[in-house]
Write a sequence for this structure.
């Protein structure tokens, strides 16, 4: 799991993170406040870490939804992370 997180922090791209955040907000996995906090972050790695930490705190179902959304958005990254 730690390797997957490390790779996500390193390999995710800003547009993918933004799409993931938008989808998480749309599906009410994260709040408007969560989205705004992440959106203000300029550092991609910090934003990715914030997304992971925020969603993980919301439980297993939220984490599963995030993985599903990520795989829809960037299947290549998901395959690289071993999520597919």
């Amino acid at each position: 799991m730690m390797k997957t997180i490390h790779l996500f922090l390193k390999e995710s791209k800003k547009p993918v993170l933004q799409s993931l955040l938008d989808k998480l907000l749309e599906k009410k996995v994260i709040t408007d406040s969560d989205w705004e906090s992440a959106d203000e972050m300029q550092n991609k790695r910090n934003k990715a870490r914030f997304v992971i930490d925020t969603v993980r705190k919301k439980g297993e179902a939220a984490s599963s939804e995030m993985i599903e959304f990520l795989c829809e958005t960037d299947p290549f990254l998901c395959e690289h992370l071993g999520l597919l």
